[in-house]
Every structure is written in C-alpha cells, then in structure tokens.
Write a structure and sequence with these properties.
Blueprint lengths: L3 E6 L10 H12 L3 E6 L7 H7 L6 E3 L5 E2 L3 H9 L6 H5 L1
Parallel strand pairs: 1-2
Antiparallel strand pairs: 1-3, 3-4
The structure holds glutathione.
Length: 94
C-alpha cells in the first residue's frame, strides 16, 4: 500500500473529533494506511508551502506519493478514507 503524508497542525487540544486533523489521522489509523506526519505551524500566513502544494491553506491535507494533494472538509476526508476510497481517483474527481 502506498504511503501518504498527512499534513496536520503541529499541536492538538485532545484526540477528539473536534480536532479536524485528528479526525483524518484516526481514520488512517483505523484503516491501517501508512502515513508520515508533516506538521505545520498555526495561522493562515504561516503556510506558504502548503498553499503552493494544495492551493489553499487549511489543514488537514493528504499528499500522495506523486505529490498531488487531497483537501476537503475533514469529515469528508475521513469518510473517504473509511470507505476505502482514498486511492480511488474516481472518488477524487467527484
Ligand atoms: N471545517 C474545516 C476546518 C479546517 C480548519 O479550520 N483547519 C484548521 C486546522 S488547525 C486550520 O488549518 N486552521 C488554521 C487556519 O485557519 O489558518 C474542516 O473540517 O476541514
């Protein structure tokens, strides 16, 4: 299975569903999808690299091995992971 990078906040209040990054991280854990964490500082002005890669500045973002990125509402991202469709290009296009 390919490895992905999970771009997420550098901190977390608690491992709860309120933490949007953790929501996606937990889905990856539960699905057994290997990932590396890339931590980002907080603040909309602090993420020029994320902006360049994904075209926007919010986290979480999943980066695939080919460098393409996936960003949606965290609940939708987690649902796609849990549905086993993370690597499904049809899901990405929908
Ligand atoms: N409703 C969005 C919220 C995304 C969001 O606010 N992400 C935070 C995670 S820390 C963020 O990037 N905040 C920094 C900012 O707004 O610049 C989701 O669930 O994905």
């Amino acid at each position: 299975m390919p490895t992905v990078k999970l771009h997420r906040c550098s901190w977390t209040f608690a491992h709860t569903e309120i933490d949007v990054c953790w929501k996606v991280q937990r889905a990856l854990n539960d699905q057994g999808i290997p990932y590396e964490i890339v931590k980002h500082g907080y603040g909309k002005g602090a993420r020029p690299e994320l902006q360049r890669r994904s075209g926007q500045r919010l986290l979480p973002v999943i980066e695939f091995e080919d460098g393409t990125t996936y960003r949606a509402e965290s609940a939708d991202m987690a649902a796609r992971v849990r549905a086993g469709q993370l690597f499904d290009e049809a899901a990405a296009a929908s």
